[in-house]
Amino acid sequence: MKESLPLQVEDGELALLTDLYQLTMTQAYWKEEMHEWATFSLFFRKMPPTRRFMLACGQQHAAELLSRLRFGDEALSRLADTGQFDQGFLDWLGNWRFEGDIWTLPEGTPVFANEPLLEVDAPIAQAQLLESLVMNLVQLETVLASKAVRLVLAAQGRPVVDFGMRRMHGVDAAVRGVRAYRSAGLAGTSNVLGGLRHDLAINGTMAHSYILAHDDETEAFRAFARHYPGTTLLVDTHDTLEGVRKVIEIMREEPEVDVKSIRLDSGDLGKLAKGARALLDEAGHDDITIVASSGLDEHKIAALLEDGAPIDAFGVGTQMGVAADAPVIDLSYKLVEYAGTPRVKHSPGKINLPCRKQLYRRQDESGRYIGDIIALRDEEIDAGEPLLRQLVQGGRLDEKAMALAEDARERVTDALDRFPESVRRLAEGESDYPVELSPELERLQSKT
Amino acid sequence: MKESLPLQVEDGELALLTDLYQLTMTQAYWKEEMHEWATFSLFFRKMPPTRRFMLACGQQHAAELLSRLRFGDEALSRLADTGQFDQGFLDWLGNWRFEGDIWTLPEGTPVFANEPLLEVDAPIAQAQLLESLVMNLVQLETVLASKAVRLVLAAQGRPVVDFGMRRMHGVDAAVRGVRAYRSAGLAGTSNVLGGLRHDLAINGTMAHSYILAHDDETEAFRAFARHYPGTTLLVDTHDTLEGVRKVIEIMREEPEVDVKSIRLDSGDLGKLAKGARALLDEAGHDDITIVASSGLDEHKIAALLEDGAPIDAFGVGTQMGVAADAPVIDLSYKLVEYAGTPRVKHSPGKINLPCRKQLYRRQDESGRYIGDIIALRDEEIDAGEPLLRQLVQGGRLDEKAMALAEDARERVTDALDRFPESVRRLAEGESDYPVELSPELERLQSKT
C-alpha cells in the first residue's frame, strides 16, 4: 500500500530523504572511527541574475526538523534490503540522534552571495547526514520567498494574494510555500491548507466555471453575492465591461446586495481596470475595489501601476508559484572545518571560505545598512550584532531563539527599508551593496 | 504541534489542499441544488517554447488519489472555524465521496497543446472540488518527466541518473519526482526514499567532503574502495587528472581494490574525460567507466557527446530537478459540459474545446505516428485506438486500467521511436507533427 499513499512521509522515513552517498559516507566514517567534529556551512555562490537579494527562509524550520530526525524501524529494514549496510551500522543508525549545534540566520533575513545561512557543528557522521535534506528544505522556502517579496515590492503597499497552489511543485511545496509567502509579506493565499497551517489569511473569489454552470451571468452573480455578502465577483467570463454593468445593475435592483470587489482575469488589465473604475464610480460605487489576476509577475504589476491602472489588489499564481525566473539556487553545504582545522575544496574561479563563520550587517547612525562583513565566528569584530544565532545546542532546540521565526514578516519589511534603493530595484542587475570579508577570514582564505 | 510537523499531510487533510473558492463554489452549488453532471477537461493551451512535446505523467496517480478523497473531522472543524460554511454543508462534506468517472491518458503518453490529459464526469459539486489538487498533482510529474526525457534523449542510450533531490521543491516533489523520472527513462536516482518508494535503482558515489575530511586524497580513495567494492571514486577535489593518477596508483599497489568508475564533477568535462580516459586506458583500465556531473542539462550532454567526450554515464541535478527552462505549464481544468450542454468561456485568441472528448493517435502501416485527432468522446472515428481510458467509474478505481501506470517507461520509449524526428529534437522550435480536430468537434467549436 506504500505506493498508494505516496503523499505521506512518516517521521521515521524522513531521514531516508537523502542521497545514498550521505549514508555510505556516514557508514565509512563509522567504520573508520572518524568521530571528530566538523563544521558544514550552507551558502550560495552566485545570486541569480534576476535577483538583487535573496530572502533566507526555512533555515530555522529545517534546524528544528533536523534536531528531531530519527531512523524508524521500517526505514532501517528498507536500508538493510539494499545490501550496502552492515548490521552494526544499522543498529547505530537506529540510535542516531543529532547531538551537535546549529546556527542559523533568523527567518526572513536578506542575504547575498557567499553569506552563511546556516552552519552545523557536529561529529562528522552527524553533520554529513543532514546535507541533502537541509538543502531541500531551505531552498524551497528561500526560492519562493525571494520571488514573492519582489511582487510585494512591485505592488507598493497594495495587497498581493497567492493564487499559485495549483502550479506549485507538489503538495509540500504548496503547503510550506505559504510559510515562505507569509514571511515575504503577502496579504493572503487562496490555499486553504497552507493558510490554516501557516496562519495566513485565506482569500477566495469565484471561477469562470461557476458563471458557465449557470444559464446566465447575472443569475450567477446574484446567487453568489447572496451566499457570500462582501464577496468578489469575477466579471470577465464573457465581456469584462458588460460584466461590470451587470454587477451595477444587480446592486441598483437589489440595494441590499453587498459586493466588495470585482476581479479581472483576462485581457488588457490596465485598460479594463480604468473602464471598470469609471463605470463603478459613475454609478456611485467608489467603495468597490478592483482585483486583478492573470499571468502577473512583478514587472507586469510595476508596469500597470506606472501606467496608473486603478487596481487595488493583485492575485498571483503561475510565475510566483515556481519562482519561474529563478526556480533554483545553487546552495552549497560545504565542509569548512574538521578536527579543528580549516578544510576547503580547491575550485578554480570559485570562492570557498574556510572555518566557522559569523555574519555582520553594519549600520550607519540613522540605522541604514552600509555593508556586510563575513567573519570568523570567534573573531572580534566591531560591526554591531552578529546575525547567525545558535538555534540548536547539543542537539536541543532553543525554543526562545526559534520564536524569531514568528517575526519574519516584520523583519523583512524593516530590513528592506534600511537597504540602499539598488537592493530593492526590480530590474536585472547587481546592487552596489558591499559584502566584505573580515581581516582574519581574508588572511585565512588566501592561505588555504 | 501542527506547525512542528509540517511535512505531513494526513489523508483527511488532503481535501483541504485546494483553493478556497472551490469550497465556496461547491457550497453555492449545494445551496442552489445544482446537482447536474458536469465534465471538466484537463489540458494545456501552449507548449513551453523549450519543449516539442510534454510527457503526460501523474494523471493516473491523481485519479487514484481523488477517488479516495475524504474530509476528515479535523479538516471539517478547521473549515467551520473560518465562519464561511453552514453546518449543513459541512455535514454534507463529511459524507462527500467522489462518485463520478475519471478518464485519463496512460502515464507516460506524449501530448501536445489542447489535448485532454484527463476528464472528470461527475455531479458538478464533486467535479469542481477536484480542480486545484488534480492540477497540482499532474503538473509536478508532467513537468519533471517532460524535462527528464530530454536528458535521456540527449544521452543516446547512456545511463542518466538523478542527483537532484536537494534542488527540488520540497519533500513531495523530491519523492514523487522519482516516479516521473522512472517513467521518463532515467536509469537511477541518488534519492533513497524516492528510489525505494517508486522502484528506481538507487545510486551513489562520494562527495568532496569525504575527501576533505581525510588528510590525503589517496587515503580517502583507498578507504572508500575497501568499504565499497565496485564503487565510484570522485577524482576532482584537488586536481582531476592527478586524482585519476592516484586511483591508478592505488590499483597498481593493491590489485584487489575494485573500482568500477570515476566521477568528474567540475572543470571542462569533455577535456578532462578525454585526459582521464587516456590515463586509464594506458594503465590497462579500459573497464573503468567515467561518470560526469556538474551543471549538466540536455544541451551540455549533447555537446559533450558531439565532441566525442568518452563519458559513460551522466548525473544530473539542478537543471532537471526543477525543470529550470520550463518549471511550470499552464494546465487548465475547464468546465466543458454541464447538464448535457456544451459550456465554454469566451477568450479572445484562445482555443476552448467544448464537451467530453477523446484523443486518437493515427499510425501508418509501419506503426509510425502520423497525426493526432481530438474528437468528441462518443464520435465515431476511424483513427485507431482511443487513448483516454476510463480509470474511475462511479467512484471506483479500475485496478486493471491502473496497471497501465507500471509500463510507463516502456510506453515512452516505444512512443518516442514512432514520432517524426522533429518531435524528439532538442533545439527550440515546434515540431511538424499535426494535431487536428475531428469534424464533429470542429463544427461544435465554431458554433459555441
From TrEMBL, chains A, B:
Coiled coil: none
Disordered: region residues: 428-448
Gene3D superfamilies in the record: Aldolase class I, nicotinate phosphoribosyltransferase
Domain Nicotinate/nicotinamide phosphoribosyltransferase: 160-321
EC number of this enzyme: 6.3.4.21
Record InterPro entries: Aldolase_TIM, N/Namide_PRibTrfase, NAPRTase_N, Nic_PRibTrfase-Fam, Nic_PRibTrfase_pncB, Nicotinate_pribotase-like_C
Pathway(s): Cofactor biosynthesis; NAD(+) biosynthesis; nicotinate D-ribonucleotide from nicotinate: step 1/1
Keywords: Glycosyltransferase, Ligase, Phosphoprotein, Pyridine nucleotide biosynthesis, Transferase
Annotated ranges, domain Nicotinate phosphoribosyltransferase N-terminal: 16-138
A GO molecular function held by the record: glycosyltransferase activity
GO terms of biological process kind: NAD+ biosynthetic process via the salvage pathway
Catalysis: reaction(s): 5-phospho-alpha-D-ribose 1-diphosphate + nicotinate + ATP + H2O = nicotinate beta-D-ribonucleotide + ADP + phosphate + diphosphate
PTM remark: Transiently phosphorylated on a His residue during the reaction cycle. Phosphorylation strongly increases the affinity for substrates and increases the rate of nicotinate D-ribonucleotide production. Dephosphorylation regenerates the low-affinity form of the enzyme, leading to product release.
One GO cellular component term: cytosol
Pfam families referenced in this protein's UniProt entry, alphabetically: NAPRTase, NAPRTase_N
Known role: Catalyzes the first step in the biosynthesis of NAD from nicotinic acid, the ATP-dependent synthesis of beta-nicotinate D-ribonucleotide from nicotinate and 5-phospho-D-ribose 1-phosphate.
Family assignment from sequence similarity: Belongs to the NAPRTase family.
Protein name as it appears in the record: Nicotinate phosphoribosyltransferase
Organism field: Halomonas lysinitropha
